[in-house]
Amino acid sequence: MKIIKSENAVRGKNSEKCKTLEYSFEDKDIDLGVEIITGRYPESGYCKNLVSKELIYVLEGDGTLCFETENIQFSVGDAILIDKDEKYYYNTNYCKVSMTCTPAWTQEQHILVQ
Length: 114
Fold this sequence. Notes:
Elements: E1 10-15, E2 18-23, E3 31-41, E4 46-49, E5 53-67, E6 71-75, E7 79-82, E8 88-102, E9 110-113
Antiparallel strand pairs: 1-2, 2-3, 3-8, 4-9, 5-6, 5-7, 5-8
């Protein structure tokens, strides 16, 4: 069993519009993050994870998750599974999401593409 108290979560940001809280259990198979997104993220193009599936649970707010072939509306209580290598971006005024990645997320596997 492992626990990370909220005061020990690592604060960061992917951009001015995407603030993060990282809960790294130092487990290569799974991790947890919380993101607060206030606008389009990324500002242009798409992001994608080269290695991990991303399971998103919407804690607050709503918006649109835009993929190459479709756009999906999301709101509080929705869960979204994004496969590795899927390109997407957020379009929202405000949302707070919990994201679990498997295998665990690393900065190197998260890329921005056009």
